[in-house]
Design brief:
Distance between the termini: 57 Å
Number of helices: 13
Number of domains: 3
Number of strands: 35
Largest sheet: 7 strands, mixed, barrel
Length: 735
Amino acid sequence: MPRREPIAALVGALVLAALAPLVPPVERANADPPDVVIAEFMASNSTTLFDEDGAASDWIELWNRSGDPVDLAGWRLSDAGASWSFPQIELAADARLVVFASDKAGSYPLHTNFKLSAGNDTIVLRDPSFVVVSAYSPNYPAQSSNISYGLGSNGVVGYLATPTPGEPNSAAAAGTAAKPALSARGGYLTEPIELTAATTTTGARLYYTTNGSTPSPTNGTEYTGPIAVASTTTLRMVAAKPGFFHSKVASATFLVMDELLADTGVPAGWPAGPVNDQLFSYGFDPAAVEEYGEAIESSLLAAPTLSITTDQSNLTDPSTGIYTNPLQSGSAWERPVSVEYLDGSDGFQLNGGLRIKGGFSRTPLNPKHSFRLYFEPKYEGALSYPLFDSGTIETFTNIDLRTEQNYGWQFSSDRNTLVRDAWLRESHAAMGNPASRSQWVHLFLNGQYWGVYMLKDRITADHMRHLHGGNADDYDVIKHADNFGYEVNDGDDDEWLQLWSAIADGLLDGDEFADVEALVDLANLADFWLLNVVAGNQDATPSAFLSDIRGNNWYAASGNGQPFRFFADDGEHVLGASDHDAMVSRLGPFPITDDNPDWNSSFFHPGWLHEVLLTRPEYRAIVTARAQLALSSGGPLDTAAATARWVTLREQVGLFVDADAARWGNFGGQSVGRSHWQAEVDWVEQEWLPVRAVIMRNQLVMAGLLPATSAVDVADDNQLRPAVRLNPPAGEPTT
């Protein structure tokens, strides 16, 4: 079963001023020594204290207030779901001891077997007789990033002004100032405006910056009246009051079109050259602006704007910047940001966390990285906004900012469509399966245009609970790992390893098949396999780029009574992207058991499960039925439906492709842009899609997965004749 999630999701904004009742440490009933209390803890640590692995683990501080040493052997710390025993250790009189709540018990002596939740949770300290000595119970209030909670030096239990692990505590704050309300949201300016602001916290002062940095009484300008905004401006503002924590940051990014199009050179604060080998590029190609200025302007207005503002050092500092250290990953490389989504009069502004995401694309030679946004209690809570289709999930704790990589213009590729990945996932949904959703946006980083990106929801335990109910703790999510094995994204891999045990010998007897059938939605697995085969996916399960030995770009999720279902991800290498070969076969069979040198549980992926299941007639019948349904006339993968889906996406992208082309099309040493995009989307539409369904029916017949009556006589059938390509590149034949 899934283990408890280390950080619980909290829907809605976290406003520390509106606290749950403060819960003082519970004292022993007899008040006799030993007098040990939980003096301080941090449930959302990222920079305050690091453990032996260099990780910013949660931590709990004990304080022996008595005049005698205390032997802690047999004492226990627990949260709402786990309990951990102290080793033999003596806590001297008036001494403090820090224990990491890291879930690394067994690896180091003073590490618990649980992590703390930044949402509401419990911490209890018991002596060897199981008497509660000190506790924050039933629940401590929601916690914010790098702010500790405990018994302040002023005698108040609350959020502490300064974390002091292992040292006497600072004073507890009275609360948090309310976030400023701005009179205007960001967006494109057509005329100058006067911006006003206010906070509901009596006695608080407002401070703002216009360079992306976090404002404070010592950084920025005090707000004393309306702010004139007439040029491109990244405004951030906080409320501050003595004895209170500063408010959450309010932000508004104002853009002036003429300035954006004319901007050249190195922006203030950004690197003039490579940092740690990370390449940088700024602004639009002046030649493109001169020739296609109106098209670029229309393009920028054709999709929503996503503006991310943060301290410049969070992006480009040589030691701590995430953009200048793109190969680094994990929570230690997450930085606080303000996020604005601007879509005409609609949108939101919310604080969150930002990380670099990706595999190959993390190379410093790539100037256009992908990102992941986190909306968690330590920032301002979950994002609640209808980013995607009406009636679908509208609450998100994290979301991806994906952009084209292998075929991106930053690498001078002439096969960039911006459509392939979306087509793959929407096709999976059209087959009746759950799938991640997406929409395109124009991304700005600290006021600099960074190109077209795709906001895409992630398959997580939190996502699954919104789909199927229950709690995030009820779900397991397994995915491809950086080494092309698998990793646990949420929960545990107990049931995943049960599947491996069933197929490890390459065969399935009746009992083993029944076990697999109980754990897996076999129709979904068949669809997942069929979709990747029809799409000619070269980088899935398995990956042709890994000699078909290991897999890539997949998610699997189960729990709360739901069997494992599989999700396609990052479909760049589909629809002939790498080889322009509409005849390509990804049917297999692919190497398993003794023919595969990596055949072990660490690299277990859905493709292996499918290969072994094909030894069972029951599963082959499911594959046949799903293929007949998908490829039949009117089916979701038949020519008409597949093409209509492509055309719809292509028409959307065509509205805003010019801005991305002008931003990145000349970076790699040659100019690529709309004409290349048009040629490539035409190739897919006219040379791949008209023939692929027919080719697949024939390949499936030859593999024994469709009846012979499904075959097409390719010698006589014009369906296999490629259409004339529109706008072919110079020197390429038109037929």
